[in-house]
């Protein structure tokens, strides 16, 4: 009987102590920076806040302890609206200026004395006139021949006409429009020297004094394109 009583006492003690081992809660464990108990519940402090561990960062936030910030997908960039190219400005017409000029050429530079045939030096002089004519649009070009008073009126008239025609023919040969060039001779009728300044009989001195009267004048009228200054 004593032995049986002893066994019953040991069994009773074992049964009384067994709940301490069977139902004891497992120790708390860290989960994603939080402390949770054995049942997976978040351990909270006296203020009711989840217990964060030192390794916690906002990236480890979990509901219901902390709000989870959800990443918002960035909107795809919209293509820039197409901008129509600006219309090209209308070309500005080049300004046109009227041209009216009168050029005078020494007859002695163009021809030999008492001659109507161009000298080589005369062609060089007229080449400058050709360039002048080609740089503009002329409506009219008049070539006028003049002589000094030596010789008869009829002779001087014919010589002045021949010289004017020679200059006209040369310009046409240099591709200056024949339809705008006219030639005329005025003989000795329009001298530029004063009679009192050139006196005496025909001599080398008198011929030299009357040199300004022996001339060819070219009068032009038309338009010219103005080139803007750079």
TrEMBL record:
CDD domains, per database record: OmpA_C-like
Keyword Disulfide bond: no
Pfam families: OmpA
Superkingdom assignment: Bacteria
Keywords carried by this UniProt record: Cell outer membrane, Membrane, Signal
Leader sequence residues: 1-24
Domain OmpA-like as annotated: residue spans: 99-224
Phylogenetic classification of the source organism: Bacteria, Pseudomonadati, Pseudomonadota, Betaproteobacteria, Burkholderiales
Name this protein carries in UniProt: OOP family OmpA-OmpF porin
Annotated localization: Cell outer membrane
Source organism of the structure: Rhodoferax saidenbachensis
Keyword Signal carried by entry: yes
Primary location recorded for the protein, binned into one broad class: membrane
């Amino acid at each position: 009987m004593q032995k049986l009583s002893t066994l019953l006492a040991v069994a009773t003690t074992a049964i009384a102590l067994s709940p301490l081992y069977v139902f004891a809660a497992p120790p708390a464990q860290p989960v994603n920076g939080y402390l949770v108990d054995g049942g997976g519940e978040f351990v909270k402090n006296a203020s009711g806040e989840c217990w964060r561990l030192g390794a916690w960062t906002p990236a480890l936030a979990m509901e219901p302890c902390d709000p989870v910030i959800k990443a918002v997908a960035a909107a795809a960039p919209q293509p820039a609206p197409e901008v129509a190219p600006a219309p090209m400005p209308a070309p500005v017409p080049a300004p046109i200026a009227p041209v009216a000029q009168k050029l005078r050429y020494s007859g002695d530079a163009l021809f030999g004395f008492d001659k109507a045939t161009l000298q080589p030096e005369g062609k060089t002089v007229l080449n400058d006139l050709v360039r002048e004519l080609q740089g503009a649009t002329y409506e009219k070009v008049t070539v006028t021949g003049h002589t000094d008073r030596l010789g008869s009126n009829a002779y001087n008239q014919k010589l002045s006409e021949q010289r004017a025609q020679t200059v006209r023919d040369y310009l046409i040969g240099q591709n200056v429009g024949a339809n705008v060039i006219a030639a005329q001779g005025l003989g000795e009728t329009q001298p530029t020297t004063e009679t009192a300044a050139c006196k005496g009989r025909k001599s080398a001195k008198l011929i030299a004094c009357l040199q300004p009267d022996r001339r060819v004048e070219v009068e032009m009228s038309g338009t010219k394109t103005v080139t803007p200054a750079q």
